Amino acid sequence: MKRAILVFSLLPMAFVSCNSSNTDKQVTSIQTKNNQNMQVTEAQKAGILQAIDLYIEAGNKGNSKTAREAFDSKATMSWVENGKLKNVPIQALYDYFDQGVVASSYELTSIEVAENVATVRIESQFGTAKFSDMFAMVKDGNQWKIVSKVYHLK
Fold it and tell me: What percent of the chain has a predicted confidence (pLDDT) above 90?
């Protein structure tokens, strides 16, 4: 229940379900603020949002332990700094969270799924710094994991 409250308070989206006899295969049409329609099953959406909720919780609390649950152990983070591409292990994000920096806002703007892979975009703010965060995710067994975070500092 806590996850649902957190997610729906962050999501400016309308959800419309289609009829289906199998709830794992039930399809949801998600209308994003970009007016793009995407088809995602309820099971896919729940699994993806479980990992994203962990990331958001970690950012809200400045807690790398929670973030570790959302990411694959070999995940990476990438961005451009002074015109040059930077790629680092996800440990750099954990170190950032452990400095006590906490997010002031998150907004989920898109989810795209192709069977067992997905991309998620979030607009976030940490203090005065605003970011566009994009996550590549893979379903590992029954759990979705973030394998890469790519961001742009606005």
Answer: 58
